[in-house]
Specification:
The structure is a single chain. It is built from no helices and nine strands. 18% of the residues are buried. With 114 residues, it is mainly beta. It has one domain. The strands form two sheets. The protein has a five-stranded mixed sheet with strand order 4-1-7-8-9, with no helix packed on it. Strands 3-2-5-6 form a four-stranded antiparallel sheet, with no helix packed on it.
Amino acid sequence: MYGGPQRPQSELSVIDLHDAVGVMIGTRRVAHSDYSSVQLLPGTYPVYWECLYGVSVMIEPSGFATGARSADVELRAGHMYSLHCDRTTGYGYQMYQWISDDTEGRIVAGQKKP
């Protein structure tokens, strides 16, 4: 997503799409089928990510459930971030989506599955 001249990794923020199937950062959409990660200049961005879960047809007739989350996230230079999706199982399952700062080992948005 950074289309400028080459910069060292230490000057960019990287988001690994990890579990997300679709992502919107600002007004730009990215599909996991096209890219596994994106590079951006540091700053605060609105991030929206979609998740696809395989579930029992007894729960969802299609066998799939979708979840999404959005958050304004401050991305720091030289940091690697990743988008995560997980769920509980069984009737009344809960979906969880979060962004982790893998450089610091902390959650920066959303909620991790307990």
